[in-house]
Amino acid sequence: MSYFQRHIFFCLNQRENGEASCAQHDAQAGFEHCKSRVKQLGLAGKDGVRVNKAGCLDRCAGGPVAVVYPDAVWYTYVDQSDIDEIVESHLKNGQVVERLVLPDNVGR
Ligand code: FES
């Protein structure tokens, strides 16, 4: 059994050279919203959910991206309602939000 039941990592990488990066899509706001929703719902902590910042996850073309482990499910999201759905459906209930899953062929 792992320490956390689910662990979500948000890429917050910012590039100054004009190349795509998740920070251009307000990834920070998505991360902060997720963290507060997980806390509000009492999901945070051991045997629960952990929300972490990450640097580039190498799938920049699909940004902003986040990945949930141990399920290894990759998401792209647009707004807070997308984050709410990921939290409620996947992080809380273990159901993947298919409409937000990042296609396998999206890379850097
Ligand atoms: S900048 Fe976010 S995955 Fe690369």
UniProtKB/TrEMBL annotation:
Record Gene3D superfamilies: Glutaredoxin
The protein's name: (2Fe-2S) ferredoxin
Source species of the chain: Roseateles asaccharophilus
Taxonomic lineage from the root: Bacteria, Pseudomonadati, Pseudomonadota, Betaproteobacteria, Burkholderiales
